[in-house]
């Protein structure tokens, strides 16, 4: 009966069972938790910095006006390239860079609720810091790449953000699950997703699929009037994505939790 119980363990509990005493000493150590949060700060602040800075530089120093789809394509490319680079060099520590992704891992059982709350707090602060730094250096041109729904289309924007977030979370959960666990391809897949959907949806509502990415520019500009659209849409997308991922691939095991929590330093 105990053997069956162990086989039914999922996510973080499965990893704890697999590694034994090392789990508390390594994955739950203050050093490793701090490393994870610093990694999240670097990745998330870098994302909003390159987006807000890119928008301000294009508007102030780009040498000409751009059509909305051109603006969206350039910024989506910049964001995608940053995410590819950041996930490659920080992925073994922590590379959620998105409260929606963190919530998805938490709901799947890969990380604890207290740690997920800490992640989301750091991601939001980091996003604000990145956009504020860009505003200080380059001004607020291009609205700092702020996400903004079309007038009179708030509900449509919520639904669109839910769809975007659903796809992103399902993609990452699918690539960090069981036999398809493939960390080496995740950065490329995430970059491709961001570039494709950012270019397509940018002119419509900014195509955030990341509540932190939407928060940073709004905070730096001092305008949070339509910000609620993005966390609301993302929440819906995450809930559906986690349910669909479980249906498609089953519950997460030890390896999935390890992918979500990163690798501790070797002792």
Automatic annotation (TrEMBL):
Organism: Zwartia hollandica
Membrane topology label: Multi-pass membrane protein
Pfam families hit by this protein: MIP (PF00230)
GO molecular function annotations of the record: water channel activity
Name of protein: Aquaporin
Compartmental location: Cell membrane
Classification via Gene3D superfamilies: Glycerol uptake facilitator protein
A GO cellular component entry from the record: plasma membrane
Record keyword Calcium present: no
Bilayer-crossing regions: 41-63, 69-90, 111-138, 153-174, 186-208, 228-248
Family: Belongs to the MIP/aquaporin (TC 1.A.8) family.
Domain of life (superkingdom): Bacteria
Keyword set, alphabetical order: Cell membrane, Membrane, Transmembrane, Transmembrane helix, Transport
């Amino acid at each position: 009966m105990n053997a069956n119980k162990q086989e039914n363990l999922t996510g973080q509990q499965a990893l704890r069972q697999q590694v034994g005493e090392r789990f508390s000493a390594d994955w739950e150590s203050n050093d490793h938790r701090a490393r994870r949060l610093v990694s999240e700060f670097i990745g998330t602040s870098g994302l909003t910095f390159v987006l807000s800075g890119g928008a301000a530089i294009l508007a102030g120093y780009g040498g000409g006006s751009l059509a909305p789809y051109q603006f969206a394509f350039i910024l989506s490319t910049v964001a995608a390239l940053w995410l590819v680079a950041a996930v490659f060099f920080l992925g073994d520590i922590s590379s959620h860079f998105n409260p929606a992704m963190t919530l998805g891992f938490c709901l799947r059982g890969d990380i604890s609720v207290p740690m997920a709350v800490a992640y989301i707090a750091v991601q939001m602060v980091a996003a604000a810091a990145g956009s504020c730094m860009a505003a200080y250096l380059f001004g607020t041109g291009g609205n700092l790449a702020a996400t903004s729904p079309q007038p009179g289309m708030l509900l449509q924007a919520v639904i669109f953000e839910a769809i975007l977030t659903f796809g992103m979370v399902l993609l990452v959960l699918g690539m960090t699950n069981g036999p398809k666990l493939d960390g080496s391809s995740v950065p490329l897949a995430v970059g491709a997703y961001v570039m494709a959907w950012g270019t397509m949806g940018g002119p419509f509502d900014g195509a955030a699929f990341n509540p932190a990415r939407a928060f940073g520019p709004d905070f730096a500009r001092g305008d949070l009037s339509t910000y609620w659209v993005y966390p609301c849409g993302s929440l819906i997308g995450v809930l559906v994505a986690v349910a669909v991922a479980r249906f498609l691939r089953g519950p997460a095991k030890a390896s999935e939790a390890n992918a979500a929590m990163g690798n501790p330093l070797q002792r």
